[in-house]
Amino acid sequence: MTMKNLSQALTLGILPVFLLSMPFSLPLSIADDDIEQAPLQVSFVPGFGTHPSGNVSVDFSVNILGGRIAEVRKFEIGSLFNWNTVAMSGVQLSGLANFVEGDVSGVQMSGLGNITLGSSASITFAGLANYTGAEMAGLGFAGMANIAQQEMAGIYMAGLANVNMAENAGIFFAGLGNYAEEEAAGIYF
């Protein structure tokens, strides 16, 4: 199995976990002009909480099982999952997964994985994997893999592999190997 195939397998293996844990009755995107501002959001599951529409940008978010909102600016915690449709900055903690459709800056920690569809300038910890659909910069620690679809820069440690579909720059530690589709500049272990 090549590292590119490994990246695809890891991505296809992680994404269904997130998709199965999220209700499909809610709209998958929110127009920026419809987003409310609030200091706090509390939800039991998406659609059942202080802001059932999810069209809110908050400083603090508490999700009893899981929650879906537009944006978190300071702190979010969820026992199972956190789902942000616009962005996340600050600290985000979950028992299973953090899923952000936009950009992330700050710290993310999850028992299973962190998936960011935008860019990530953060410190990420995941029991299984960290995945970024754009650039990944910062520190990444994963039990299995750190995966970036575009540039990857920083210090990354993975039990299995660090996989990048563009350029790597930084220090990379992996049990099996490190892979960069394009230019690789850095220190590899």
What's the layout of helices and strands?
Elements: H1 3-21, E1 36-45, E2 48-49, E3 56-63, E4 66-78, E5 81-94, E6 97-100, E7 103-110, E8 113-116, E9 120-126, E10 129-132, E11 136-142, E12 145-148, E13 152-158, E14 161-164, E15 168-174, E16 177-180, E17 184-188
Parallel strand pairs: 1-3, 3-4, 4-5, 5-6, 5-7, 6-8, 7-9, 8-10, 9-11, 10-12, 11-13, 12-14, 13-15, 14-16, 15-17
Antiparallel strand pairs: 1-2
Can you put this structure into words, describing what you see?
By secondary structure, the chain is mostly beta strands. 10% of the residues lie in helices and 59% in strands. The chain has one helix and 17 strands. The protein has a 17-stranded mixed beta sheet that branches. A hairpin with a 2-residue loop joins strand 1 and strand 2. It is elongated, with a radius of gyration of 16 Å. 43% of the residues are buried.
The sequence of SSEs as H and E is HEEEEEEEEEEEEEEEEE
Q: Radius of gyration, rounded? A: 16 Å
The assigned structural class equals mainly beta
Task: Name the shape in a single word.
Answer: elongated
| Distinct helical segment count | 1
Estimate the mean pLDDT confidence.
Answer: 87
**N-end to C-end Cα span:** 20 Å
Query: Main beta sheet, described?
Result: 17 strands, mixed
Strand content: over 45%
Q: Report the count of strand segments.
A: 17
Helical content stands at 10-25%
In the predicted model, the low-confidence regions spanning at least 5 consecutive residues are 17-28
